[in-house]
């Protein structure tokens, strides 16, 4: 008897200790105490009740339900007086746990995810219809391969690398050189898969030409004129705005060979895989560059020379000593010639064989003793414009004369950026021209291609890297060889291609994709979790704005410390750049070194209150970003906010994967469906947001978010199959009432200037006339951001303060961020709830497109002009209506 009393006392003591830990929010430790108590008192339902409560708080809902059901059975069987009370609590907990363990069937999730990618988009829309064209990259060539990776892979294993923003493929080439160097004289069984991605079809078509030439070079002896001619063509196609006849003719031969393969539905090379859906885009780009294509008909060699001369004034005006030393004295003279004529020197042997008259011009001393060139005479020769430097789509979209060659570049930077360690390249002594600097690099690439042979696979993918990463992360692919039609959801892709990668490089894409918010949501999940894996990125667009990485994290993610970074993302920063502009160098991100970064214990995550504050701050920053600096500010000082509100739902799903309980996440989302949000955070008041701005504490305040809550309610239902919890249907718009609408802005925008703008457009709807409160509705103007900010009038200045503005925000304005805009047709496609649209039509609301970078109406510099919604919007299909 004493033993039983002693055990009962011990169980009670363990439960009390568990309760104290539970109250202190140390749920994992409390669970251990409750488990010990349950083992001792196996007939007592109370420890099981405690366990179900603790498991609920940690987000382990299956265990919560299991222990709650067991406790419920034991409680009902006990016959005690408070059975009904305890049973009611357990039943309520089971219901809540079931709501927060929502798991939509995988196929339905995939279907909805594909629909969202196709219909909503993730960025604010732009008046620029084409992706930027940068045929020559600016960053240093970097290898994605590290020998330490081999310690984690069997000798017949494979490595996978993802290169986003492929550009001129220098990182791919640099990686091949490194891989081949790491296999000296050995027979290796390692295989290497590269996923090469860019959003611009002309970039990838141009790279295919280089790949084809390198493949030819790999099959030729290093010595010999034939090999040198191929190398000469590679050099000029890669770097030269104008090219000699011999290179031009070989370029046209390669284009013809590629077109023949692609039109015959064949892969262009044994080691290159193209996707069938992308091939028509490459064909169109290649056809633009043929002798009968539009590139050579649209622009002349003289046009190119003029652009080069103008762009080189920028570079040539600064002659740094370190630059002269890097390229050599003779190359400095060649650079002067280039700045006057856009011509680069072929190797001497090619000059002798094909361009002998060049000796007359490049060896003739000028008045000051330097090499000179008679440009006017030389232009009569048979050189041609390099058509691969031109993206006609981009030029037509931007309308800029200086866009003939894409982004400005100095080819002599290649002497410094296409480099490897000396032991990897056979460098020429005393290089006499740029060709001498570049040749060893491409010779080494060709040698690597030959050495790797069938062990090399390059998968070329056209599109936004985030879309590609999302398809990989959620396996939105099917095997094209599978004859089962029921499995064909998403895109065809060989099943032996990887879904996870050893290394990923994003170039400077985060500059344009919302910083690391998208990096860690989309690129990180496809990175292998081991000590050798990593993600590289660099900030080239606005690096001077950010003194260090902490400022970058503050602006784009509202993250103020490395500890907070780990808690919200599972990421650590392994290496970063050095002063004076550290972000202009590569930053390396890795998974935090732990066994598993998914489903982490709650105690290792951000506390619940801090998570709520952070998420609501992120919502306010996405909804109401500060305007970008004035147009007079240098481009490298402009900070954009390209992501629409849909990113918040991707963030919620990702937080659940990290281990955040679903009931925490529903608790932070649901307040964004209402008209008001009580919080201690605020919309941003600075651009960029620095760490001390983010950390500033404010008193609790009720903020009116009514202009944004309809879109949040709309998105919540669309994303509901992807969320880790079920939402009350009464809080969101029903899916069968969400329709596709077309909004025609042709009559409004036709007379206005719609010059190329960044991803910054929003739809603004507002009421007119007298509103229900007796106030005449406001007409939004170029102070729209101040009008929408519910804290500005009270806490920043007295403008837009008072009942008139509060009522307008609450009832007379709606802002929408998720839509598609066709600048050519001046037409918006948007998914909205029918009830809301009908309400706006009945109330004679107006609609206009607004810029969020300046918070001005699109097309009108001062006066707001708009058309009533009823005259602009046309309802089409429902969301769940099958496509025709």
TrEMBL record:
Signal peptide: none
UniProt superkingdom: Eukaryota
Residues passing through the membrane, by range: none
Pfam families in the record: DUF4470
Species annotation: Monilinia vaccinii-corymbosi
Listed name of the protein: DUF4470 domain-containing protein
Domain called DUF4470: residue spans: 151-218
């Amino acid at each position: 008897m004493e033993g039983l009393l002693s055990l009962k006392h011990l169980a009670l003591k363990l439960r009390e200790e568990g309760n104290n830990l539970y109250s202190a929010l140390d749920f994992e430790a409390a669970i251990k105490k409750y488990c010990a108590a349950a083992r001792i008192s196996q007939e007592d339902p109370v420890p099981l009740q405690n366990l179900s409560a603790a498991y609920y708080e940690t987000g382990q809902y299956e265990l919560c339900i299991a222990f709650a059901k067991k406790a419920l059975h034991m409680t009902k069987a006990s016959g005690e007086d408070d059975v009904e009370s305890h049973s009611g609590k357990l039943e309520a907990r089971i219901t809540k746990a079931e709501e927060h363990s929502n798991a939509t069937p995988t196929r339905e999730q995939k279907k909805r995810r594909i629909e969202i990618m196709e219909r909503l988009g993730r960025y604010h829309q732009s008046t620029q219809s084409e992706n930027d064209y940068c045929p020559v990259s600016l960053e240093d060539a970097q290898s994605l391969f590290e020998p330490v990776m081999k310690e984690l892979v069997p000798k017949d294993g494979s490595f996978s690398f993802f290169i986003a923003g492929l550009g001129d493929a220098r990182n791919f080439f640099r990686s091949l050189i490194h891989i081949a160097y790491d296999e000296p004289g050995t027979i290796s069984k390692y295989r290497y898969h590269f996923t090469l991605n860019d959003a611009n079809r002309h970039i990838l078509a141009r790279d295919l030409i280089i790949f084809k030439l390198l493949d030819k070079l790999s099959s030729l002896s290093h010595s010999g004129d034939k090999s040198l001619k191929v190398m000469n063509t590679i050099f000029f196609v890669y770097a030269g705005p104008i090219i000699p006849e011999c290179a031009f003719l070989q370029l046209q031969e390669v284009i013809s060979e590629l077109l023949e393969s692609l039109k015959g539905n064949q892969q262009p090379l044994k080691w290159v895989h193209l996707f069938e859906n992308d091939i028509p885009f490459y064909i169109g780009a290649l056809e633009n560059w043929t002798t009968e294509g539009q590139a050579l008909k649209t622009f002349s060699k003289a046009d190119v020379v003029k652009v080069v001369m103008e762009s080189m004034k920028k570079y040539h005006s600064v002659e740094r000593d370190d630059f002269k030393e890097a390229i050599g004295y003779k190359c400095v003279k060649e650079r002067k010639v280039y700045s006057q004529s856009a011509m680069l020197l072929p190797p001497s042997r090619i000059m002798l064989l094909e361009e002998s008259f060049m000796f007359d011009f490049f060896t003739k001393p000028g008045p000051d003793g330097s090499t000179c060139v008679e440009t006017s005479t030389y232009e009569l020769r048979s050189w041609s414009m390099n058509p691969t430097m031109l993206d006609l789509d981009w030029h037509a979209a931007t309308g800029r004369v200086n866009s003939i060659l894409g982004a400005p570049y100095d080819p002599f930077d290649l002497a410094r950026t296409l480099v490897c360690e000396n032991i990897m390249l056979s460098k020429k002594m005393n290089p006499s021209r740029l060709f001498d600097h570049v040749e060893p690099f491409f010779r080494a690439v060709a040698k690597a291609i030959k050495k790797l042979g069938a062990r090399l696979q390059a998968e070329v993918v056209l599109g936004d890297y985030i879309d590609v990463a999302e398809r990989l992360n959620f396996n939105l692919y099917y095997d094209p060889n599978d004859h089962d039609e029921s499995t064909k959801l998403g895109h065809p892709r060989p099943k032996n291609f990887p879904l996870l990668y050893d290394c990923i490089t994003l170039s400077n894409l985060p500059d344009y994709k919302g910083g690391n918010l998208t990096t860690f949501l989309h690129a990180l999940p496809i990175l292998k979790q081991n000590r050798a894996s990593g993600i590289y990125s660099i900030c080239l667009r606005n690096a001077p704005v950010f003194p260090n990485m902490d400022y970058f994290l503050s602006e784009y993610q509202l993250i103020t410390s490395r500890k907070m970074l780990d808690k919200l993302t599972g990421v650590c920063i392994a290496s970063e750049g050095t002063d004076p502009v550290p972000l202009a160098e590569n930053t390396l991100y890795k998974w935090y070194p732990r066994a598993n970064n998914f489903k982490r214990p709650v105690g290792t995550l951000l506390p619940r209150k801090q998570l709520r504050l952070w998420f609501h701050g992120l919502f306010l920053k996405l909804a109401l970003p500060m305007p970008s600096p004035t147009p007079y500010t240098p481009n490298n000082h402009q900070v954009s906010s390209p992501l629409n509100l849909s990113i918040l739902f991707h963030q919620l799903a990702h937080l659940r994967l990290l281990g955040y309980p679903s009931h925490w996440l529903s608790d932070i989302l649901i307040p964004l469906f209402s008209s008001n949000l009580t919080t201690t955070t605020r919309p941003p008041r600075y651009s960029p947001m620095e760490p001390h701005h983010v950390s500033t504490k404010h008193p609790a305040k009720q903020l009116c978010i009514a202009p944004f809550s309809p879109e949040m309610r709309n998105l919540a239902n669309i994303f509901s199959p992807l969320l880790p919890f079920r939402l009350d249907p009464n809080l969101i718009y029903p899916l069968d009432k969400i329709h596709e609408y077309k909004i025609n802005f042709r009559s409004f925008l036709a007379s206005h200037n719609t010059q190329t703008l960044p991803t910054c457009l929003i739809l603004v709807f507002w009421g007119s006339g007298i509103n229900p409160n007796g106030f005449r509705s406001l007409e939004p103007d170029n102070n729209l951001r101040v009008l929408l900010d519910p804290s500005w009038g009270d806490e920043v200045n007295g403008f837009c303060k008072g009942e008139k503005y509060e009522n307008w925000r609450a009832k007379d304005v709606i802002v929408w961020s998720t839509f598609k805009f066709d600048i050519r047709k001046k037409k918006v496609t948007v998914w909205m709830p029918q009830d809301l649209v009908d309400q706006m039509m009945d109330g004679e609301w107006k609609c206009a497109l607004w810029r969020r970078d300046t918070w001005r109406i699109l097309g009108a510099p001062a006066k707001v002009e708009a058309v009533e919604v009823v005259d602009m919007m046309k309802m089409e299909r429902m969301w769940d209506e099958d496509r025709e």
